[in-house]
């Protein structure tokens, strides 16, 4: 893959966008430590970013199917790059500027995600896409593993305003570097209504029972398993183990597991890729399960290794199947539906998790989350066509 210059450009651009997406909330959190932001302002900025993301994902999918996928990556990346200096100017001075920049950054991130997915299908030959998707995931996981320490060190030198400019520079790389797609698919008929064309993408998704079942399972797992990690894991680390080290070790183990999953699936071609993907997705259930009882700290770390490995194997097989099976002229819209459902609904799980723990108790809520993570992929596997993720 590294000998393919077009793929290398795409890989570097996608990696830059992934790193920029990860870095923004981390940099804003550093601004709270520096007292440039309050906790309330941080919540508002992250909320504005999420709103921008959710609003732009479906529109980005429609535009990427109407026009050049490379063009959508360019303009969405440039918008997110421009948001960096705007947020830097507003940090500690103007909340309106900060929120506007955060919303634009989220919109750029949301619009480019389905375009990148569709552009990969144009740049990479079908028989090489699984390895290409694994390479992209591997790069993102490596950066998220080493970036926190590097970012914290950079903050000492440049300050958080300077880091926001660096985030904008990463988006500039993501906008300018990816190549044009070779052999782009013929576009379908264009309609004036964005909603109509997005609904056309939904109809395309419904033609693939494996996609509907897998997306439902993925959404449930992210909404429950991710919420357990974000809310319950810090509390368990503090109250049961009396140290933040378990929290840090578990999150590092998750990333390490994901790295191992990306390396594994880059070369492994399972005979039943759909069932393999769903079984891997179910491994996320070990994350809330290990928080239920007095498990040794090493057990928590091992559970998060399995969760990270499983989600990465699922992601690579899922993206590869979507790029292969979905009608090319509707691929970006179907990908936008994927991101909108799986990642867009995750904040709802976070919002409901803490009140549910207060009402029913942590043990009950974690047990429900673990059961949901195991059962949702198992039920999805019963749907026809999921065995091979193909019609």
Model description:
The protein is mainly alpha-helical and 391 residues long. The protein has two domains: 5-126 and 158-177, Growth Hormone, Chain: A, CATH 1.20.1250; 198-380, Growth Hormone, Chain: A, CATH 1.20.1250. It is built from 14 helices and no strands. The protein has helices at residues 5-33, 39-66, 69-90, 95-123, 129-176, 194-206, 209-239, 245-267, 273-282, 286-290, 297-325, 331-342, 346-360, 362-380. Helix 1 (5-33) runs antiparallel to helix 2 (39-66). The longest helix has 48 residues, at 129-176. The relative contact order is 0.14.
Secondary structure: helix percent: over 70%
What kind of sheet is the major sheet? Answer: none
What is the CATH architecture assignment of the largest domain? Up-down Bundle
What is the domain total for the residues?
2
Please name the CATH topology of the largest domain.
Growth Hormone, Chain: A
Q: What is the ordering of alpha helices and beta strands?
A: HHHHHHHHHHHHHH
Average pLDDT level: 89
Q: Which structural class matches the secondary elements? A: mainly alpha
Count of distinct strands: 0
Report how far apart the termini are: 28 Å
Low-confidence stretches: none
- Describe the global form: globular
CATH top level of the largest domain is Mainly Alpha
